[in-house]
Amino acid sequence: MHKTLNRPRGWNRPSTLSRLPLVAAIYFAFSSIAFAQDATPPPDATTKKAKTLDTITVTAQKRSENPQKVPISLDVLGTQKLSELNVKSFEDYVKYLPSISYDADGPGTAQIYMRGVADGSDGNHSGPLPSVGVYLDEEPITTIDGPLDLHVYDIARVESLAGPQGTLYGASSQAGTLRIITNKPDPKRFSSSYSVELDSVDHGGIGNLEEGYVNIPFSPTTAIRIVAWDKHDAGYIDNVPGSRQFPVRDPSAGDLPSWGGVVSNGNCTSSDLVVCTGAAKNNYNTVDTDGARAALQINLDDNWTITPSVITQQQRSKGNFAYDPQVGDLKITHFYPEDATDKWVQSALTVQGKIGNFDVTYAFSHLNRHEHSDSDYSDYSFWYDTLASYGAYICDHFNKNSFKCTQNGKNINPSQYIQSVDGFGKTSHEFRIASPVDWRLSFVGGLFWEKQTHQIQQDYIINGLSHVQSVPGWPGTLWLTEQLRTDEDEALFGEASYKITDKLNLTAGIREFHVHNSLQGYFGFADWGWSSKGVASCFGGPFRFAPCTDLDKTVKETNHVGKVNLTYQIDPDKMIYGTWSQGFRPGGINRDGTLPPYVSDYLDNWEFGWKTTWMDNRLRWNGSVFDEKWKNFQFALLEAGGSGLTVIKNANQAEIRGFETNLTWAATDNLQLSGGAAFYDAKLTQDYCGLVALDGTPITDCPIGSAIQPTGPQAPKGTQLPVTPKFKGNLIGRYNFNFDGMDAYFQAAMVHVGERTSSLLVVEQQLLGKMPAYTTVDFSAGIHKNDWSLDLFVQNAFDSRGETSRFTECLEDFCAAHGVVPQYPNGQVYTVPIAPRTIGLRFTQDFN
């Protein structure tokens, strides 16, 4: 019986690249024009001479460097580019980062994947750790439910580091790292700015945004920077009026008894066989976000700087961000409350200085995140009642001995809804030291410690449920999860570089790590004969608010990952490199205590790349080709015929081959073209049987007719990995000109995302179907004069209904079954779309 909020992420299908000709690679590198840097607007739009490209300093390797000198597949969106692209949220910027795919069913739920390294995780609280690390400045902000959904404003740059970053960034940077770098206080000058925005969403309502910052110097050595924002995103999903008839059975014909009533989301009158919830509403999925950030910079002297900071944000969302195609475009019929509140505060302290010639950095951060959500889970009840007579055992008075309603009791509406409370804590310390980068033998190394906790409470409620069937102390609660998950990570890391010649450089790195992960608490039913999960299997006393303890397990591991890089500087403008690098994710505990823990998975990457600048720094072309081997990768799934819980198994071996490229061209002083492209071929290299040995390693020999798996592998060798499309690319053109004495511009940006599958498992792929390719186009235009600017933008101008996820609320064998329930002939599969066409106007004023 499935008792966890099931949101199977929309998994995407990569493409074949193993025989891509070099000529095609070069063609796509130039035709799918990519960007990595910003270009300064021309001071004089009448001048036709082409200008050179500007350079952004990055800290991808934990020291300040020109990105053209960093031997990593690296995309960078600087302050100006973020503003030009009207970036305000995670989804706004990741669409311009070709190596990143994501899956989200609402604000703050993003599961991020890079380079096709997609495990199919459903984002469950007891699932695998993320495979992509997300950092805010020096501090990690990734939690088990995904990274913080930070409003993007007053940001210096976003760095996307593709490929394993295990030596410098550790456990959750297996496939890559995403870094958000804020603008820092500036003691040299006062500055401030504000923006106001109004937008209209097709098929929806009106949104607004107010944001601003102020930088105040207190002295030549001290300044504070304060940032604040308030944003309302209009809804566009309609929860339309509708009803659901539960099965009516005939006990005289031998059928099990049932409720057999009707649930309506309208404003009707309730009775014993009619439940009216009044949940129907247009523009259902609104989001309100407000927050603030403050940073203080104190320069103790020319060498030492202390920067304490604090950032807080609250995000309140209503409704559901998916629609049911059988109900209609951007329409859904749900019956119970759906809302979420995500509040978090992060405090950080960074100390930077010099001891002799060595740069010293200490970074501390502490994150508190609190989420509360209400979810309609009535699909689960309806489908299991329809196909497995689930509702026959749901009563207002229940007899445990006869296992049915009492003589005076009756079957009741079995519909469930979930009330969840999640509390996250994350504390990290990092101390590192770096030698001057111009030394012949240079290094960076340090110590890292992190502890993250997740207090989990999920309350599955049926109104009017009998006392016998309710979890003790929780009236109406059919199932309760009350757990504490702890993930600890300690590491010693370092990289050293040796200049073999003036042009040839060798780098080697290693990270020695120790992880300690535990899961304890309660999950399950009351003890009424339905299941051994819960009170019936308790072995300890009360746990937090739960009646007892039925899970307490720990895993530990000590291991290491490495990296070797060889870089050759052909000339000052052109570099090539070859890299072998590793990334990892620690193993962990399955909350179904009868299953073994899952073991760590590792990613080995072999990569060749280039960083080049041409035409007197007017054209920049970077790219890489790579081959990655994913060993014993962790796969989260809902097990049919088993516990019904999300479980994690090691799925076996996979290989990802790919080609990434980005290019920026200052065509004239007025026109800049930029963009990016990524091609991936990600597939299993051995069968996935769905079975593991006693030591947790996957079993791969299960041909059709075998004793252990008569139906054969659940995903045969060659099956494409989920989430990532075969091709993702973007193309951006921006033209600056003079209009009536004002600086003006026009910009067009196009993004294409290829076709994707919805799951690794073949049966689920067939039931859920493929998510089709889609293309979006954004337009913007604006004017600037003196200290103010006015921008008009149109996002998703042609109202593409691109899909980011498909999911069901229970096992696909039930909820996605075709031709079984007349009311839902194609099952009940939800689609999460990108936002419809949005037209907006923004006014900005700067004070310097």
In short:
By secondary structure, this protein is mainly beta. It contains seven helices and 42 strands. The longest helix has 11 residues, at 378-388.
Structure, explained:
- The chain is mainly β.
- It has a domain of 557 residues: Maltoporin, Chain A, CATH 2.40.170.
- The protein is built from seven helices and 42 strands.
- The strands form nine sheets. It has a 22-stranded antiparallel barrel.
- A hairpin with a 5-residue loop joins strand 17 and strand 18.
- The longest helix is centred in the middle third of the chain and has 11 residues.
- The N and C termini lie far apart (62 Å).
CATH topology value of the domain at 22-184 and 284-377 and 416-715: Maltoporin, Chain A
Structural class, by secondary structure, is: mainly beta
Based on the coordinates given, report the CATH architecture of the domain at 22-184 and 284-377 and 416-715: Beta Barrel
- How large a portion of the residues is in β-strands, by DSSP E? over 45%
Distance between the termini: 62 Å
At the first level of CATH, what is the class of the domain at 22-184 and 284-377 and 416-715? Mainly Beta
Relevant CATH superfamily of the domain at 22-184 and 284-377 and 416-715:
TonB-dependent receptor, beta-barrel domain
Helical percent range? under 10%
Total helical elements: 7
Q: Major β-sheet, in short? A: 22 strands, antiparallel, barrel
Shape: globular
Give the C-alpha Rg: 28 Å
